[in-house]
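This section describes the prediction task in plain terms. A model, or a person checking by hand, is given the sequence of a single protein chain and must write out its three-dimensional structure as a string of tokens. No templates, partner chains or ligands are provided. The sample shown here is typical of the held-out split.
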Amino acid sequence: MKSAESEKFTQQGDPDVRPWYREPWPWVLIAIPLLTIIASGYTFYLAVSHPDYLVVEEAEYNAIVEELRPSLATGLEQVAEDQDQDPDSNEGNEQH
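The expected answer:
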């Protein structure tokens, strides 16, 4: 049999006690593994959509190098031109 005090407590509830879903810490603890699952899924997507190419033979390697060499040379020339045209460059203009 319930006492009058326990019935009063059950009917009114404790104002200091909130349901678990109203507290922030359970959501933080749920979010950590959830974000980890999302991040690993995105990492898997990146790995599958941008595969690394496997070079099997020396001839294939040389073909890839020859194919990339002009673009690499063009990129290096562009960097050199940008450095020559940069007015803020302090090369050779050191003040003592």
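For orientation: The chain has a mean pLDDT of 78.
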